């Protein structure tokens, strides 16, 4: 069990949920990568998966996981809520149709998921990490629900309430990087300015980050448990 990022699907627990949901759905929903380098395979995989979910399978999953939410065991309930959202996130990845009622349910449900602290033991790692929560929030807001897949891995504007990806930018404009840390992206000066009061608390130059890493780990191999 482990975690390599704080994003959605960035840990073993998330992948376990993804394969559990895939089994329920009768189709592989995550391990199949949407790889732009293989456009033929991608088109086939995407369309087949979307059609399968849209044929009533996703509706059944929603009913099943929404009902399981009411279980008396809180630890089960918490996990199932994540599963439930996992199903939605997996459906968004292929552009499946999520009904207005289901979207409304998701908007309420995701706020009830625990947000794990920065570091948590693997067996307690069943909630959201803060970045994953933000990812899901953004997805709920930006999901087009018109058959186009939602890319959870896309680089997005970090400003709260924005989340634009390069794909959403007007012709000829690109996302900009924070000039100091070169990590965070913004779609506009306005978004950067709005984020700065928060971002400045963790914004460091690459040199400073590297020096801190060295101090922390020496020059030995890097270990990660984020
Ligand atoms: Zn920065
Ligand atoms: Zn923005």
TrEMBL record:
The keyword Thylakoid does not apply. Residues 159-203 form the MYND-type domain. PROSITE patterns: ZF_MYND_2. It holds the Pfam family zf-MYND. The keyword Metal-binding applies. Gene3D superfamilies: 6.10.140.2220. One of its GO terms (molecular function) is zinc ion binding. Keywords: Metal-binding, Zinc, Zinc-finger. This is SET and MYND domain-containing protein. The lineage of its organism: Eukaryota, Fungi, Dikarya, Ascomycota, Pezizomycotina.
């Amino acid at each position: 069990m482990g975690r390599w990022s704080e994003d959605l699907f960035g840990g073993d627990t998330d992948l376990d949920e993804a394969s559990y949901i895939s089994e329920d759905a009768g189709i592989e929903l995550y391990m199949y990568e949407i790889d732009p380098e293989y456009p033929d395979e991608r088109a086939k995989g995407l369309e087949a998966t979307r059609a399968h979910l849209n044929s009533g399978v996703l509706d059944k999953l929603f009913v099943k996981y929404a009902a399981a939410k009411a279980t008396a065991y809180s630890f089960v309930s918490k996990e199932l809520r994540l599963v439930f959202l996992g199903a939605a996130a997996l459906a968004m990845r292929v552009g499946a149709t999520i009904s207005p009622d289901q979207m409304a349910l998701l908007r309420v449900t995701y706020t009830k998921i625990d947000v794990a602290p920065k570091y948590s033991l693997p067996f307690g790692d069943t909630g959201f990490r803060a970045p994953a929560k933000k990812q899901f929030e953004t997805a709920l807001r930006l999901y087009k629900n018109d058959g186009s897949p939602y890319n959870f891995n896309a680089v997005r504007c970090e400003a709260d309430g924005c989340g634009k990806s390069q794909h959403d930018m007007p012709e000829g404009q690109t996302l900009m990087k924070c000039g100091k840390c070169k990590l965070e992206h913004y779609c506009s000066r306005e978004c950067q300015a709005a984020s700065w009061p928060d971002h400045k608390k963790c914004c460091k130059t690459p040199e400073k980050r590297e020096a801190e890493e060295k101090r922390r780990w020496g020059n030995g191999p890097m270990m990660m448990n984020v």
